[in-house]
Design brief:
alpha/beta, 6-stranded parallel sheet, 12 strands, Rossmann fold, 367 residues
Amino acid sequence: MTKTGAQVLDVLVATPGGGVGQGGIDRMMAALRTEAERQGQPDLRIQFAASRGLGHIGFSILHMSVFIVRMLALRLAGRLDVLHLNLAIQGSTWRKLILASIAHGMGVPYVLHLHGAEYQEYWTDAPSRRNRAIGWLFAHAGRIIVLGTIWEQFVTSRIPEIGSRVLIVPNAAPRPVLAHRGGGNQVHILFLGRIGDRKGVPQLGAALARMQGDPGWRATIAGDGNVEAARVAARQAGLADRVDIPGWVGPEQVAELIANADIMVLPSFHENLPISVIEAMAAGLAVVATPVGAVEDIITNEVNGLLVPPGDVDALTLALQRLVADPALRARLGKAALEVHRARLDMAPYLGAITDAWRGAARHSTH
């Protein structure tokens, strides 16, 4: 039996690294935990646990085993009412299928939280074992959280009957802990994310190379992924003295970088709803992004950011050049982005929406 109403709701959240803040999902869950602790809700107990771990993928089975033991122990102790499953493609999907199957067998409802940027290509309508399994995963969820309109349309196109259980809850970001300073004498262009083709880093490098003759800017490309290849490309393009590529950076370094940035750029080919863009909006940065995933739900071109077509180096170069050369444009877009964050993308309403999903799932029976 699950607890509802005014009773304490016990929730176990499965997140890749246990909510330590590395990677988009973990950063989002870490912010959720911090907000829950700040609000101190007496009728809500949330625990976070790693379903994959941060090390080599070969160790994921160990983390999964520990998670399953914890889930069973909590259920036997009467301390598990809802399971929250953060979902991406490939291994994440299969791990969540295992956890959802166990939860379903124990009578524990689960919330499915879709993050995978390429899930439209991963879950198709072709007859296959994988597609049938994913269909079961979504069909038996007590609530399904998606990050924007395009994802609601996608999920309900696959299984129309789950429409009443699908909730749009865009990602959020806390207000910055550091005051915004900007780049000082040089306009600081910042990229935060996994360095590779999907995030458009080669196109960003090409755009920055075209801007070599433009004065007054520097850039930081921070994240894990193909770090050394990006460093080599920057050296070959003659950008080593203007583009810093530090590799993965932790939460404190991310806060410093955002405080010292003027422009956030994310020229991705695929996204769900990128955390780095929302963090930039929270700090009032000017944003250059691509209209992929749910980005257009939060960024309106020329109003609170600049949108450029994916893969279009010419458009990306022009957008960055405009912002570097025009401080008034940066200020106008940044101010509008900040207002959107405060109205729609702050952490307090985000926790409220996630809590509503948990309570809705606790009331929902899939048996």
